């Protein structure tokens, strides 16, 4: 069995320029399931966009992690819904390595981290040339440097195990949304994810079949669709999506909102709210209820399942 190499990754903290955290590379990378049972607790955030410190502080404030960046959410599930970084952001790899490390921590406690892919990760790979500070040897360390390899290649392969749409209990998670044309596809949820995954590295290609064109090049693909919030989607369309995937609620990011908001009689919920703020809102699910976590930390019920 191959050793699980340990990496020390430097992170930016106010007043603590030399803080590191450690992670180990996974023994193997496996494609994520597309369907999960509903956990007792579930927290959702969206569109981090490379804001590493606000991301960590948001999780700390919601008691998902502790001050040492360690998982404290027990058997709860964390959903990170779409864009982890902007195309030119210098902290892209830092954010990805952090999510990578949280996955292992969560699983050891019976929890889970769901990382749903969004448009900035699928359609570009410029971030791979920007490396975080994990190739520096600590002072007085006698250990060889294990991070001088191209670690971003590991992250690139890891991203290819992720889904574009997932179902958790009666909830459907997608970065942009489900346009009418996707409702009409004959493929199942698993098959849609398989189609997308097979072409994550070929998104500059010209597709000739309908399914791939919808998934990658259409303006209303699941990555980019904004019809729920620009007035073009209909109640009939939303109901068709719910029926196709066997869910009662669709949860999205992508389209910026002033607060976590429900649409279409609470059948669609948006959770993309100011990723730069440590007080960005999120969604919390417990006991078949969906709550908006306000900037002040209050729970406001959006929906009872």
From TrEMBL:
Pfam families: Metallophos
Cited InterPro entries: Calcineurin-like_PHP (IPR004843), Metallo-depent_PP-like (IPR029052)
Gene3D superfamilies: 3.60.21.10
Domain Calcineurin-like phosphoesterase: 41-257
Domain of life: Bacteria
GO molecular function: hydrolase activity
UniProt protein name: Calcineurin-like phosphoesterase domain-containing protein
Naturally occurring in which organism (per UniProt): Paraflavitalea soli
């Amino acid at each position: 069995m191959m050793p699980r190499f340990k990496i020390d990754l430097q992170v930016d903290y106010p007043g603590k320029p030399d803080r590191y955290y450690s992670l180990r590379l996974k023994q193997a990378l496996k494609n994520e399931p597309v369907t999960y049972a509903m956990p007792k607790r579930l927290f959702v955030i969206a569109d981090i966009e490379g804001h590493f410190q606000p991301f960590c502080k948001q999780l700390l404030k919601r008691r998902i992690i502790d001050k040492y960046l360690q998982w404290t959410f027990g058997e709860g599930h964390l959903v990170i819904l779409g864009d982890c970084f902007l195309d030119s952001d210098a902290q892209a790899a830092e954010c990805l390595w952090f999510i990578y490390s949280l996955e292992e921590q969560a699983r050891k406690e019976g929890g889970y981290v769901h990382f749903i892919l969004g448009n900035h990760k699928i359609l570009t790979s410029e971030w791979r040339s920007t490396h975080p500070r994990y190739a520096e040897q600590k002072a007085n360390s006698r250990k060889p440097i294990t991070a001088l390899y191209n670690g971003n290649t590991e992250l690139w392969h890891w991203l290819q195990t992720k889904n574009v749409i997932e179902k958790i209990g009666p909830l459907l998670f997608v970065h942009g949304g489900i346009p009418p044309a996707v409702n009409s596809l004959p493929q199942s949820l698993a098959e849609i994810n398989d189609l997308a995954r097979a072409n994550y590295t070929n998104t500059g290609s010209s597709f000739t079949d309908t399914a791939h064109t919808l998934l990658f090049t259409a303006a209303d693909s699941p990555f980019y669709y904004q019809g729920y919030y620009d007035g073009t989607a209909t109640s009939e369309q939303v109901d068709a999506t719910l029926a196709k995937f066997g869910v009662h609620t669709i949860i999205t990011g992508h389209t910026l909102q002033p607060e976590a908001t429900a649409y279409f009689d609470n059948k669609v919920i948006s959770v993309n709210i100011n990723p730069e703020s440590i007080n960005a809102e999120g969604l919390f699910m417990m006991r078949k209820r969906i709550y908006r976590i306000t900037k002040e930390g209050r729970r406001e019920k959006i929906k009872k399942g």
